[in-house]
Structures are given as structure tokens and as C-alpha cells.
Amino acid sequence: MPSQNSIGVGLISVGVMGRLHARSYLQSSQFFPELPRRAELVVAADPDAGGRAYASDALGFRETTTDYRQLLAHPDVDVVSICSPPFLHHEMALAAVEAGKHFWIEKPMGRSARESRDIAERAGAAGLFTGVGFNYRHAPAVAEARRLIRTGALGRITNLQLRMITSYASDPAQPFTWRYEEAQAGSGALADVLSHGFDLAQFLVAPIKSVSSVTERFIPKRTVPGTGETREVENEDYAAVLARFEGGVVGVLETTRVAVGPHAEYIVEVYGTEGSLRWNFDRMNQLELADDGSGYRTIMTPTSYGEFGRFQPNAGPGIGFNDLKTIEAALFLRSVAEGRQLAPSAADGWSAAEIVDAALRSAASGEWVDVPVVSGSLTTQA
Ligand SMILES: NC(=O)c1ccc[n+]([C@@H]2O[C@H](COP(=O)([O-])OP(=O)(O)OC[C@H]3O[C@@H](n4cnc5c(N)ncnc54)[C@H](O)[C@@H]3O)[C@@H](O)[C@H]2O)c1
């Protein structure tokens, strides 16, 4: 039985992201002590025995189960994290809605815009609060970039350039996994990587209205583990997207999952009539600003940027990727506690999914494709 001032957490899937969600819940009350209820890890669900053992022994969950439906039925569970591979997200999110549990779900939210829309609309109709794993918008330097853009420090924004270059799939000998199968993952680098970029670009500048894109597959086959047989990779390794934003801004967004060299070079550059700025996840505690005609200068994140001061009260060495998830956990828990939807929400997951779908349709047809307007996205950040 959780105490009165705690909020019971159920974790679905104890993989890489599930473990991080659990740590982030625990850290949220340390870095955000004003949260009215402290997260308590109640039950974790995973068919994998190793994951369940980690949940109880390392993370401190009171109970574990192989069946996520048992978790959703648990009376002490108030909120749920959904950290499974994407093919299970739709089914699990709808079951969470049915059980009346607020949920924080990893990206890509659904395998398609249709699945993502279904999740967002059903959660909204049930009056539930949601969080979605668009962690890069929580970087303090990104929060400052958004403030500078919003307050007109760069003048009128003209264009944006964004690159998300990763190497996680660059080794052709790496086995076939869920990421390469359409039925399990949906699309490839577009959904898995560039959905983050679509969210970041919209968060910084404005909603994306239409896209024109090309996609490419560079490693066409991979070996199925344990069989020695090869299987065709069903989705794209690479995508380049031209975008038109609301308000006349234009942009170029590019991604690959098979770059040899850069691990996570996620760079966004925003250009305006009075200046430019640049942020690179590889150096996430820096913001580059060019607003006085003398080129870029590098600003080391001060305590005033976003939530930086909570982690480094003396403007110390910097924060890391895991801290972004703590900020995300706190936003989700605040949404539930305050009874108002803070972003990023399921509507933002749906919005990014509409852009992914539009980009896929454009790549197939060679035409510009309009992106449907998504209601409820880009709501209050904090
Ligand atoms: N936000 C980010 O930056 C980020 C980074 C990496 C991954 N992700 C996303 O997180 C999600 C999970 O990715 P991951 O890297 O943690 O994957 P993973 O392969 O490490 O973990 C997946 C887990 O799901 C479990 N699982 C499988 N079937 C299940 C079922 N029926 N019920 C419960 N659990 C089940 C597996 O046993 C495994 O523990 C994906 O949507 C991925 O795109 C987000």
C-alpha cells in the first residue's frame, strides 16, 4: 500500500529505456522536491526474467510480473511507463486508457500516424495525462534557444537546419532486430530517430505544414540471430526532408542510423534576420549564438537556462542525457499532480508521427505532401 503522499508507478518493459524511466522517477523528487507526491516503484512487467530480476534487485520494484495486464490491474499503480518496442505501444496504451492509468510512453508512440492518433485521442477523451519521450527538448540550452527565438532575439526566423546522425546500425554484421521490421517498428530512421528532430524543430520554431523527402536503405540485409539466414531490412536507413513551417519558415532535416563515426550528432541551427543559433547534442551544455556580426560565440550553460540550476547550482561541469529524462519524468508527474497537460504529451507524439507518415508518402510519390493539423500539440511546456 503506497503512502498518502506517494504516487504508484508501474513500468512496462525493463529494457534500456524502461530502466532509465525508473531511475528518472526516483530522481524526480530529489531534483524537483516541490512535486507533491513522491514516485514509488510498485510493479514492473517484462517477459524477460533478466529484466524482472533487475527491476526488483537493482531498481527496487516491490513486485514483478510477466503480464503487463496484471500491472495495469494493480490497485497501487497510479501511473504507467510504456517502454516496450513500438509494435506493442498501441495495444498497451489503449489498455492503459481502459484501466484509467495516466501514461508516459516512449517514442515513436505508434507505428503509424493512425496508431498514434488513436492513442492520443483516446487518452484525451478519457481525461488522462500523458508524457512522451522527446527528451532533447529538455536540454537547458534548447530551452534558452526557444526563449531567444520566442522573444525575437534572432529577428524574424527564416530557416532551420537539423541533422540527426547516428551510428547504432552502421555495422552490417549487426543482427536483424525489431528495428528493421516494418510490422514491429513502423518506419526506420524517420520514426526511430528523426521523430525526435521533428519534435525539436516544431518546439523551437513552429508546426511543420508540408514536406518533400527522399529515403534510402544502405544495408539491405541482416542476419537473423541463431539461424545464420539473412533477412531483408524493411525500412529506411536514411532520410532527407525539406519542410515548410507555419509562418513562412523553411527547413532541411536529415537523418541516418548507419553513419560510421558520429554516435549521436544531433545538431539544430536556426537562422533569423538578426542572428543565428546552433545546438549540438554532442556538446549539450553549450549554446552557440551569432547575433553581433562577428560569428558564433560559445556560451557555457549558466544556471538560468531551463532546469540546469537544479542539477548544477554553481554552474558546474554540465548535465547529461539521463538528466533530460528526470526533467521529463517531473513534467509528467506535474501534469498528473496539477491536473493540466504539460508537454511533451501524446498529442506531440501524434504530431511527429503525422510528419513521419507525410515524409514516407512524399518519398514514395516524389510529391510535396501536406501534414495534417494535430489538435492539442505544442501545449504548455512548463
Ligand atoms: N527517448 C529516447 O531517446 C529513446 C532511446 C532509445 C529507445 N527509445 C525507445 O524506447 C522503446 C524501447 O526501446 P529500448 O531501447 O528500451 O528497447 P530494449 O530492446 O532495450 O527493451 C525492450 C524491452 O521490452 C520487453 N518486452 C518485449 N515484449 C514485452 C511484453 N509483451 N511486455 C512487456 N515487455 C516486453 C523486452 O523484454 C525488453 O526488456 C522504443 O520505442 C525505442 O524507440 C527511446
Automatic annotation (TrEMBL):
Keywords in alphabetical order: Oxidoreductase
Endpoints of the signal sequence: none
Gene3D superfamilies: Dihydrodipicolinate Reductase, domain 2, NAD(P)-binding Rossmann-like Domain
Domain GFO/IDH/MocA-like oxidoreductase: 143-278
Pfam annotation, one family: GFO_IDH_MocA_C3
UniProt keyword Oxidoreductase, yes or no: yes
Molecular function, one GO term: nucleotide binding
Annotated SUPFAM superfamilies: Glyceraldehyde-3-phosphate dehydrogenase-like, C-terminal domain, NAD(P)-binding Rossmann-fold domains
Sequence ranges assigned to domain Gfo/Idh/MocA-like oxidoreductase N-terminal in this UniProt record: 8-133
InterPro entries reported for this sequence: Gfo/Idh/MocA-like_OxRdtase_N, Gfo/Idh/MocA_oxidrdct_glycsds, GFO_IDH_MocA-like_dom, NAD(P)-bd_dom_sf
Keyword hit for Chloroplast: no
This protein's name: Putative dehydrogenase
Organism: Kineococcus aurantiacus
